[in-house]
Amino acid sequence: MEPSPAAKGASGGGERGAAPRPSESALYRALSRVEHPEVKGHNLVELGMIPEVRSEGERGHVTLALPYANVPIKDELVRRVHQAVEHLVPGMDVEVAVVEMDEGQRAAFLEVSRRHREAASRRRRVGHVLAVMSGKGGVGKSSVAGLLARALQRRALKVGILDADITGPSIPRLFGVHHAPEGGEEGVLPPESATGIKLMSINLMLQSEDQPVVWRGPLVSRAIQQFWEQVVWGDLDYLVVDLPPGTSDAALTVMQSLPLDGIILVTTPQDLAGMVVRKAANMAKHLGVPLLGLVENMSHIDCPECGARIEAFGPSRAEVTARHARIALLGRIPLDPRLAVMCDAGNIEEYPHAGLEAAVEAILNLTAKQAKQGEPG
Asked: Domains of the chain (ranges plus CATH)?
């Protein structure tokens, strides 16, 4: 007696145990449960990151669109997509094609991401977030970040510093803070400097400040996100983010994950530093982050005997750099041995003058303008 066609389908030959082919709508439903690791509360489908799915037999094809080709969490996103589809049909072969968003898709994604960051900032009661960035190392970027934070604090503002230079942290040393942060009910409580500036740095969490942090880009990016998400910053008017030099994963993470109100670029007189800082400026413009202006560090030496100005690193190229980047030159900080001594001793807050008043005014003007634009009516 011949078995019925239904019985053949249930037990016959190569069809035995074959999982049912999922529909494309089922694939979309599975992927709509994949939350973006940085844009919390939003899934990949609603963010426009899954433009296409196909189901062909026992193979699933998913197109994953990223705002930029090499975002730090690319591998994590691909893993989550694989996991979601494989859980839908165990053993299913999944092909994930990674593409870069076009301008329209990127703009829509970045707008949702921006609204999410602003909402997160309100929850943390952080008024404004600023980044200090340089194109290359050795220009005194961390010193400028510290001096800028202190200059804002002198205006009776509440200020914190997030040290995002994970592999080369120096903020704790500049401020003379060496004790580890404490844990609270809501998260990590950042230590405070002598004048009350809140600090968070990976160096505060190491057994020794000389211990190296040998991490790849994704781990560095995750640490920066945790400093933002898990640290109880409390009521701050400004959070200053000290970025690592260059335009790598860490800088990209900060620009995409934190609600930056603006960036201040740091350079030195040499044209080499200016050339590299222009790369940083172009990166910020590409990501739509406002550039507040440029600060030239180690601009000159004021002779203590005769008062003459000595250009130790040659004639300044800051005005040329600012003009090419189409930003304002906000100040020139001299090369002062007193500052070096104070930084080594952890007393940067005691430095009396840094030539950053124009930078502070630019920050206050921008944030006042942004606040006014955000008012109803």
From this structure: 21-107 (3.30.300.130), 116-373 (3.40.50.300)
